[in-house]
Design a protein that fits this description.
Layout (H helix, E strand, L loop, with lengths): L2 H11 L14 H7 L11 H12 L11 H10 L3 E2 L9 E4 L12 E8 L3 E9 L9 E8 L5 E5 L11 H20 L8 H9 L20 H10 L5
Antiparallel strand pairs: 1-6, 2-3, 2-6, 3-4, 4-5
Helix pairs in contact: 1-3, 2-3
Length: 238
């Protein structure tokens, strides 16, 4: 398994951890970072949580030692590892600017992207909640719209590329990519050159009162069993 997936597993393993007592910033991630128990408003810990995950990954040089979201953003730009929102992917460290910030920095919250689709980034974030995005006191999985204006970019660590991929890992990757492709194709209308023919075929009733097509997924692939059913409906099988 590659470094990105290892990091995601680590981040997910901490989901549910909360500061204790509430609103104290007393949490295991801060204790590790500052090497002592800390309490108070001076110790927000969303960036510390991300640092802690990279420490658990055990790979030096992937992520800066910092408790500041702004420092992460600055480092990303300086190291030419900044990623614009449309290009964010799993393994990236996503950065936000929420209006509830206590300062004027360009970034004040951060998380680890664990998955994406056409509409959302799926993340694990520290010091968050459904009522307070950037000061919520818990490690949570969040679902963020790709278009939300609070996303200011991401930091992409220089993960070591896997030299080899197992057959099982390849199968999982291929199945996911193929499913995404099929979902995309299923939403496509017929090509202009085929619209009239497609409409006629979808409206056609066989002598048995069966439709040849149900009108969905005009650009989708047809399997052999689907073709066999089509031949039968056309009366081509004797």
């Amino acid at each position: 398994m590659g470094q990105v997936q290892d990091l995601i597993k680590i981040a997910e393993s901490y989901v549910g951890i909360k500061e204790n007592p509430p609103n104290s910033n007393n949490v295991v991630f801060n204790t590790a970072y500052y090497r002592k128990n800390v309490v108070g408003d001076n110790y927000p810990w969303c960036a510390v949580f991300v640092w802690y995950c990279f420490q658990a990954l055990g790979v030096d040089g992937l992520f800066p030692r910092t408790a500041s979201c702004q420092t992460i953003l600055d480092a990303a730009k300086m190291l030419k590892q900044a990623v614009a929102p449309p290009e964010i992917r799993a393994g990236d460290v996503i950065l936000y600017k929420f209006k509830t910030t206590r300062n004027n920095n360009a970034a004040n919250h951060v998380g680890i992207v664990i998955d994406t689709d056409d509409n959302y980034f799926y993340t694990v974030e520290g010091n968050t909640s459904v009522s307070s995005d950037d000061d919520g006191g818990a490690v949570m999985k969040r679902k963020r719209l790709r278009t939300m204006p609070e996303i200011v970019g991401a930091y992409r660590p220089k993960y070591k590329e896997d030299e080899e991929m197992t057959q099982d890992e390849f199968n999982v990757m291929f199945e996911k990519a193929f499913a995404t492709y099929n979902q995309k194709i299923a939403k496509q209308p017929p090509h202009d050159w085929a619209k009239d023919t497609w409409a006629r075929v979808c409206a056609y009733d066989t002598s048995k009162g069966q439709k040849l097509f149900d009108g969905t997924n005009p650009q989708g692939d047809a399997s052999r069993e689907q073709l066999a059913a089509l031949f039968e409906r056309l009366g081509l099988l004797k």
